[in-house]
UniProtKB/TrEMBL annotation:
Residues 2-252 form the Aminotransferase class I/classII large domain. Belongs to the class-I pyridoxal-phosphate-dependent aminotransferase family. Its cofactor is pyridoxal 5'-phosphate. Keywords: Aminotransferase, Pyridoxal phosphate, Transferase. It comes from Geodia barretti. GO terms for molecular function: pyridoxal phosphate binding; transaminase activity. The keyword Zinc-finger does not apply. This is Aspartate aminotransferase. InterPro entries: Aminotransferase_I/II_large (IPR004839), AspAT/PAT-like (IPR050596), NHTrfase_class1_PyrdxlP-BS (IPR004838), PyrdxlP-dep_Trfase (IPR015424), PyrdxlP-dep_Trfase_major (IPR015421), PyrdxlP-dep_Trfase_small (IPR015422). GO terms for biological process: amino acid metabolic process. SUPFAM superfamilies: PLP-dependent transferases. It comes from the Eukaryota.
Amino acid sequence: MIRFTGCTPVPMQLLESKSYHPDLDQLASQITDKTRLIILNTPENPCGSALSEDELRTIADLVMKHPNLYVMADEIYKDILYDGEHFSIASIPGMEERTIILDGFSKSYAMTGWRLGYGIMPPELVPHVVRLAVNSVSCAATFTQKAGIAALEGPKDQVEAMTAEFATRRRLITDGLRGIQGIRCPEPEGAFYVFPSIEETGLSSREFEDRAMQEAGVALLSGSAFGQYGDGYVRLSYANSQENISKAVERLDTLVRSL
């Protein structure tokens, strides 16, 4: 989408050594007079890290130094956070008019296939977004919109129960992957993904993905699918049963031992 609009994407690496948090000094050095948008996804996919309030305030300070710079905050995993509460960069004084919030119902409310989402943004951006949406996705079905209202206005019991179950699965898959020789796996802070390093296995991300599927019957995604910094890593989703997660870890252990 960035290239579609004639702009140039500038990737920002998340560092395994920092539990997949960015180097904000590096971010500051990458912002130029041509920079128009900083895209944040927190808690994020594929690594499961979540920016802290201090990190978001630092980013906000950088944004406020540039009058033509906006932030697009993808907050769709905000309810699946294992410690503390979600903090939005839009809540920082001066940032409401500089922030585009993207959110939806696929993750918190398990409405994945209904493809319902929403944006909150400064009024001057609305006509441009409407023009894009009308010509790409048209509109959401009425019953889906009513379901979204019910989700927002209803109790959060099921969301909290789902997050608690994800926390159990997070521990299960993280401990399991760490027990496989040659695999490193930081613990996710949110969402439902792990992003382990498989560099020490001697396989590239694509090779590991292929052999995991063909030889172990485990579906995972090459880290290189997420950009230039992803090679040497793979993404696994733990939106599955504890039984299947345990089976997947056992099969991956067998695969790695056979290399």
